[in-house]
């Protein structure tokens, strides 16, 4: 947000370098968390190790209900890494003097494109090119000319959904905090921080679970009713978040 003071912005100015500076800061924090948690692994974990283990267990538990435990563990590196990056990015924006990288569409759009390319790649690898493309036509061959373009548009719209949902919510949170700090800079913003922290956690959860949902739809075999039954209700529920 141009005109708003940030510590990094005082060095780089407002523009692309401001976003790059905050991205580097997030990367340093994420790498530090990962290295601190794994540097001295213990049977009785320390604080950082305990937090990271709880986070990873939560991600697996989340994915287990969507795609099954085996696949949840298989895709854990992707989902946990993206989730940790999004979470740290979201929370940084709550601290006065910093800006959330996820409040910039140039950050959220590449994330969404990466997820889009990856889950389609996994679907093709698991089912083969022909079988994967065939599922876009739907179960009724007569309706294939209608269903195929609808499915293509539906999958492309996931890029917009993932990127703009995260960008819009975090950008709105940043603007809300900015206005609040200008109007009442001392006491009134304190309760708002709880709301903003909850929003940061919620948007991280939504982004991670949607990755699992899209992966489940891509790698699930068509006659596997267990996977399909798990995907549809979750997708419908969080689609409105």
Features:
mainly alpha; globular
Give the helix/strand layout.
Elements: H1 9-12, H2 16-39, H3 47-67, H4 69-74, H5 76-92, H6 105-127, H7 129-134, H8 144-183, H9 189-219, H10 225-238
Helix pairs in contact: 2-3, 2-5, 3-9, 5-9, 6-8, 6-9, 8-9, 9-10
Provide an overview of this structure.
- This protein is mostly helical.
- It has one domain.
- The chain has 10 helices and no strands.
- Helix 6 packs parallel to helix 9 and helix 8 runs antiparallel to helix 9.
- It is globular and about 65 Å long.
- The two termini are 24 Å apart.
Quick rundown:
The protein has 241 residues and is mainly alpha-helical. It is built from 10 helices and no strands.
* Rg on CA atoms, Å: 20 Å
Structural class: mainly alpha
**In terms of per-residue confidence, which ranges show pLDDT below 50 for 5 or more consecutive residues?**
222-237
Order of helices and strands: HHHHHHHHHH
What distance separates the N and C termini?
A: 24 Å
Number of helical stretches of at least 4 residues: 10
Shape call? globular
Number of domains: 1
Overall helicity: over 70%
Number of strands: 0
Question: Could you give a short account of the major beta sheet?
Answer: none
Mean pLDDT: 84
β content, as a range? under 5%
